[in-house]
Design the sequence.
């Protein structure tokens, strides 16, 4: 087959379009364009109950995502759930007395950790532990408590 | 009775014979890679016939599949009040499965059958033997460039398919059905992981490209050099590569996403 200039241009366009498509998927479709989760510092938080929290669940401050859950362990001695979270290094001004709570996005949405900044002048750094935590709300427990208080009231 | 058993044995032996021959053929093709890479013009010509000419069918079907996903996904998701997740659904199904698999099937049908017919006819008209006469290795001169072209084209085509599909889903979901534009993209970006989803999808498409091109080229090279033989080889290409792609897809999916 004779290779004409048009053929070469067409092949060039084809390869370029393919590379653009891969680039598009990396930047626009996946999380690569957003935060880089690998660079950041890790802090831990202990929860009585981490509910439906999963590894990679988002961590937000004021509704903005600042990191992700890195791992969730069970502590054999205190019977607590130890959640390790990675916070992107650009968010390095969170006070040490910040509190962490587990919330649900929407009624049926996934669970995430919301951080509430405190007033301390020192900032959280790698390896620190968040002391103030609020467990996940488990729907059955709330309904149970509600029914119980109803019955007591009567 | 004995005849039946004999036939069964012969059939089995034929399958293994063909598998063995195709493996030697693959080895022969791959060892010629260095020589062909030194002459990139051979690959460019094949990239045109294998890749460029498949782009149109890929883009059109990608657009329609994305639009259908948007429409169907919206109907189901709106029952749960989760229309916002439409982007995730469309992108995840395209990037993980439909992109590589449908592209693989279309590639086998469009480019694979053409390759088989071309090489089968070259064999039938004794062009391949003619090359051997001139001390030119037909596998390295004819087959290897085509193999490389198929191997390079498939991931690019699959990426194009997924991209057009995501845009098609956006067209229907956001443009027609009124899903929020920001939610479509942001939910997608939050849930689709580059390493886990997109890279695995690209790996899949590379594997499918390898399989589809290998089968197409081998069927052509191995065809009985008659018009009937070439037609049977072309049919074989489409049937065998489609089945192989679907089967291998299951294995790859189980390995990549199945947590087995």
Sequence:
């Amino acid at each position: 087959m004779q290779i004409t200039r048009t053929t070469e241009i067409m092949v060039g366009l084809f390869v370029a379009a393919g590379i653009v498509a891969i680039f598009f998927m990396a930047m626009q479709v996946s999380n690569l364009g957003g935060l880089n989760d690998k660079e950041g510092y890790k802090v831990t938080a202990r929860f009585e109950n981490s509910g439906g929290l999963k590894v990679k669940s988002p961590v937000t401050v004021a509704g903005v995502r600042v990191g992700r859950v890195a791992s969730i362990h069970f502590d054999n001695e205190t019977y607590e759930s130890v959640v390790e979270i990675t916070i992107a290094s650009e968010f390095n001004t969170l006070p040490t007395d910040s509190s962490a709570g587990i919330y649900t996005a929407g009624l049926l949405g996934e669970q995430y950790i919301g951080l509430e900044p405190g007033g301390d002048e020192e900032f959280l750094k790698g390896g620190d532990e968040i002391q103030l935590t609020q467990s996940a709300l488990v729907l059955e427990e709330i309904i149970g408590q509600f029914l119980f208080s109803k019955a007591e009231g009567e | 009775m004995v005849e039946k058993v004999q036939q069964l044995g012969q059939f089995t032996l034929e399958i293994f014979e063909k598998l063995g021959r195709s493996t030697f053929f693959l080895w022969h093709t791959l060892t010629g890679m260095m020589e062909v890479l030194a002459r990139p013009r051979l690959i460019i010509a094949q990239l045109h016939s294998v890749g460029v000419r498949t782009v149109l069918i890929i883009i059109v079907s990608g657009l329609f599949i994305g639009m259908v996903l948007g429409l169907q996904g919206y109907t189901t998701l709106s029952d749960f009040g989760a229309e916002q997740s439409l982007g995730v659904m469309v992108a995840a199904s395209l990037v993980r499965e439909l992109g590589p698999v449908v592209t693989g099937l279309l590639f086998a049908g469009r480019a694979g059958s053409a390759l088989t017919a071309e090489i089968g006819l070259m064999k039938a008209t004794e062009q391949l033997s003619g090359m051997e006469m001139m001390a030119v290795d037909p596998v390295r001169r004819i087959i290897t460039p085509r193999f490389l072209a198929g191997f390079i084209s498939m991931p690019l085509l699959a990426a194009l398919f997924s991209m057009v599909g995501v845009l098609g889903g956006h067209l229907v979901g956001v443009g027609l059905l009124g899903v929020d534009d920001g939610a479509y993209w942001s939910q997608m970006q939050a849930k689709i992981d580059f390493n886990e989803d997109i890279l695995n999808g690209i790996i899949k498409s590379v594997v499918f490209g390898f399989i589809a091109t290998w089968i197409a080229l081998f069927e052509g090279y191995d065809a009985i050099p008659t018009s009937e033989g070439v037609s049977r080889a072309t049919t074989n290409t489409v049937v065998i590569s489609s089945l192989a792609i679907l089967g291998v897809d299951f294995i790859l999916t189980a390995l990549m996403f199945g947590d087995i």
Notes: Chain B touches chain A at residues 41, 44-45, 47-49, 51-52, 55, 80-82, 91, 95, 152-153, 155-157, 159-160, 162-163, 166, 185, 188-190, 192-194, 197-198, 202 (CB under 8 Å).
